[in-house]
Amino acid sequence: MPQPRRDTEQRPSPEALLERARREDSREGRLKIFVGAAPGVGKTYEMLQSAHAKLKAGTDIVVGVVETHGRAETEALLQGLEVLPRRRLEYKDQILEEMDLDALIARHPEIALVDELAHTNAPGSRHPKRYLDVEELLSRGIDVYTAVNIQHIESLNDVVAQITHVRVRETVPDSVFDRADAIELIDLTPDDLIQRLKEGKVYVPKQAERALEHYFSPGNLTALRELALRRTAERVDEQLLTHMQANAIAGPWAAGERILVCLSEDPRAAGLVRYTKRLADRLHAPWTAISIETRRSLQLTDEQRDRLADTLRLAEALGGEALTIPGVGRRIADDVIGFAHANNVTQIIIGKSTRSWWFELTRGSVVHDLVRRAGNISVNVIAGNELPSGPPALKTAVQTAARPEPFDPRPYLMAVAIVALGLGAAELIHPWFGIENVDLVFLTAVVSVAVRYGLLPSVLASVAASLCYNFFFLPPIYTFTITDPTNIAAFFFFMLIAILVSNVAARVRTQAVSAIGRVRTTESLYAFSRKLAGTATLDDVLWATAYQTALMLKVRVVLLLPEDGVLTVKAGYPPEDQLDKADLAAANWAWGNDRPAGRGSDTLPGAKRLFLPMRTGRGPIGVIGIDDDRTGPLLTPDQRRLLDALMDQGALAIERVLLVEDMDRVKRTVESDRLRSALLTSISHDLKTPLASVLGAASTMRDLSSGLTDTEKRDLLATVIDESERLNRFIANLLDMTKLESRAIVPNTARHDIGEIVGSALRRASKILLRHKVSLELAADLPMLELDAVLFEQVLFNLLDNAAKYAPADTTISIRSLREKDIVTLQILDEGDGIPPAELESVFDKFYRAQKGDHIRPGTGLGLAISRGFVEAMHGTISAANRTDRSGAVLTVRLPIPAASDALDTAA
Question: Which phi and psi (to 5°) does residue 616 adopt?
Fold first, then answer.
């Protein structure tokens, strides 16, 4: 994978030093992972052997969990190691055993053995995944030995599925693998692993036979083995590079190949990129493309700059990393070699020079310098393809041109004025210091003009200073005639030095201005990216993109996105909501053909605006249109490159928001389908059951009324009434949930005594609570609360109904209340089996019903969901927990005390 640029100076990398210091000073434990290509290679066996070696050295080691899978040699290695008992959890009438995380933390050994890193914990565990247990152990300062197969690494999941045709569901994030302090690869050849499988050392015979036919084929095992070797090598290579940078070790250490290609504005540079891509694929090596920015880079034509930018984009598109770094050395080769040493590069690719021998003699050759200075880094000089001779290349799709700036005479007048000031100063110091120091005064004036106003005014200042030096100070004075030959040489060298100094100072000024411009552009782009990262809605993203583009390019901007198959204006700066026919035609053409159209382009140039497609890796995502009041091309080449950067960032942000909206839409669809399925199940079963009971009892009374006793008739009538009430509750719950979903419920609150509402709810639920004892423990000092009495009575009824369903007969259901500062708490406690810890929040979901057995009354699964909605509508909260004094659940309602409640109670 491409590596970030490192500091080219021979000093330790700050990032690497900080990482090493963090690891050394951190109280976190160290993680060692034993990696294998497939089950049965011996990861657990090797982990236990390493544990025994540490134990002999006096290290405190505890086995948190180790899966032996019935392998005798692995079980034998557990002898002599302390093994913590596992935690037993009940799930779906089965007893599951998991690692006891709390006991392991309390024991706090130096090293904990935790097998099967990708394992999914049973419901009711603290963490859903075992790697999260490992992370908690590390955070407590406990070192961990663990094992994992390569197919469980998240980034390789699709590759493994393609190779083996088996989708692995249990995965470990790459971040866990990459944070490991040590990785030990347990390697076994496919033939040896297949032999172990046949001998029954991996699976029982029937499982082994099926495994040999599918997963454990020689081809699959070879591919998995290569994946394991490569992924481990990548991690080790990263550790090596970090070590070299932390210790300022000059590379390369050729533990693995890294390729660097040097790019310039040469038309053949694209061929170098493609060659490097092919070489990197053959060597399975990461590669980087760099361009060194020097003073000469500022003199490139717009066509050359565009070509270099396109070549760097090509490198990124082919999977490399593209970098432009400023030149800091006297030679370009020094910067390239410094970068190569800092990043452990082993091969450098550079194009063959086509310059004349005179050019190389006077200015040097980058190729020759690289070959001489590369040391043990291989340098590949590639000839490249000759440019075909023929008609000139077609012009670009969008015309760009530098806008001519109007002539400004002020810099030239200021240059003359500064030289005049220098002349005055020279006249003052001449009697005291002589003519030897007069030329320094003029040189100072020339440098000042060059730094402030640039090259051409400084040339004028050089000529003016030379003439003043001759006219006023070289005898005979007040004439341009020079009689002394030595003065002729002095005048010549003064003028030469003045021009050279002005040229150097002007170049420095140009570089400084260019650097300041790049810094400002980079800061603006960074601020823009941060702004986009903080936006969550499409309108905000579009507005930010339009505003930033208009601000940086000084143009008017309009953004169009497809809506129901039609390109529609979505944002603009200044605000714009419609386009004329010519602009709309150009925008649609740009969208349909994925090419620029409109003003200054090859297509529909008569349009008012220039339209360019906004693309991401998935294709076009929208169109941006720009215009201004000036004539001629809209953009300079630098502005066009800046617009490309702005469009790329905006397109990615738009795609991100659209993807989030798509995910939300999918989630809503899935939720709607789930609710629809639950509702149909409820209607088909929970509503049909009481109807069947009512119909059965009524038909019995109609057909057999003459043969029924009075007691039997009363029983049948009671059945009709009970089941009708039950049916009424179901329908009422459905209606209440519909009102909650549509936000049609507005509580009609008033001051009420909570004890009265509790009593009313108990009378209403008397039939439901016939088989249970009720304990009422209400505090005596409860204030009046702002409640909707009808809604709160329904809340209490639903909570009592839920307790009666899930608590055995003849047990006690308790109702308790107490006052806590400005809150009144009401609790409903039962003596049932309680709620599984993983389901404490799920019990409030719509249509959720716990699976506890056939003795539980059926229901719609809406009671607690409705209760939460009602309580929250009255500004309260409701939560579920398990009792601490015995088995059973406790549902807690908390309601705020009105601000004036205490005063009212006192007055009463």
Answer: -130, -175
